[in-house]
Amino acid sequence: MRRKIVMIMVCLILFSGVSVNAASARITTNGPKTFQPMNIDRGHFTNTFQVGLVLSSVEGTEGISYLRIRITYDSSILTNYGGAFYSIPNNMAWDPPAGFSSEYITLGNASYYEGAGYITNGTHFYAINFKPNEGVEGETNIRFEVVSARDAEGNSISVGSATHTVKIGGANTNNNSSTTQDNNNSTSNTSNSNNKSTSNQPSSNSSTTTETQKSANNFLKNLIIDGYELDKEFDENIFEYTITVSSETEEIGISTELQDASAIVEITGGKGLIEGNNIVEIKVIAEDGSERIYILNIIKMGSEELEEEEQTVEIDERNNLVLIITASAVAILGTAVVIGTFMYRKNKTNLRGQSKQ
User: Fold this and answer.
1) 212-301 maps to which CATH number?
2) pLDDT digits (tens, 9 = 90+) for 180-209
3) Hey, how many other C-beta atoms are within 10 angstroms of the C-beta on 241?
4) pTM recorded for the entire structure
5) Domain 22-203 belongs to what topology?
6) Which one of 106, 149, 163, 308 has the fewest beta carbons within 10 angstroms of its own beta carbon?
7) Is the separation of the CB atoms in 292 and 219 below 8 Å?
8) pLDDT of 299-357, one tens digit each?
């Protein structure tokens, strides 16, 4: 009996020390550490800056198949102008209300199913635009709180949240490590109490400098796709476009025009196209290092889709030909009726005249 008790105690001691490594990850942000609005007018998106979200520190899983992120910020300092997904796998499962709202970013499908895509460690998966409200200065926080997440296998996972701090006013600087990591788990309901509004307060840096301020213009002037037209007319304040290519297309040529010659462009994608949606990231980097991203969706049709489209075009052409022939026949028939009626009346009039004589 003592032997059994000893064995049980040994087992309890051994297994109590065993820990299971659960899958985990966190999100980080990149974007400007300080932002100085310029006295320019480019319409709705004038003087906006972008904050990017990056998946990092992925452990115990190949990636993340679902994320729901709550956005909190001081609306007296900033206005949220929305954003866009990019670097997302073609087979990512989407579940309404996937996408962006004023309070949440939703990526993927909460009801995981076999074969769904997922984002991997280091994926820069989202960029969101903010605009400082007129006349405000000072430091403020933008918090991205992960309220729900699933790993590549569809299991619930703890994903650390992040807070991006930006100072409004002063020379523009870009700092990709301006994220405050948050160790709260994925179900945290922490409020955005860290925001510090210093609206209408002068900047603490009152020293005078003769250094020339570097340009923060990171807008495109035009986007040109060789042999194709964008789904809508290019506008510097619209950051996502789509084109459709045939199943034989392997790559496309992309040309850009910059508003400021001191900026540079980095284009990722556009080659080795596969069936479905191919995402091209067009990053404009201003002289001061601030970035702006335009997205081009290239929809490559499958061979079956191409055949269906060709058949549809052929049917449309036949239908148009039938319509033309029918319209011509109706016109000829109408003309014949008019001429016949006229001749009938004329002959009838002549007969009456002859009968009177």
Assistant:
1) 2.60.40
2) 555 444 333 333 333 443 334 434 443 444
3) 21
4) 0.52
5) Immunoglobulin-like (2.60.40)
6) 308
7) yes
8) 998 876 555 665 666 676 777 787 888 888 888 887 877 787 777 777 766 666 666 55
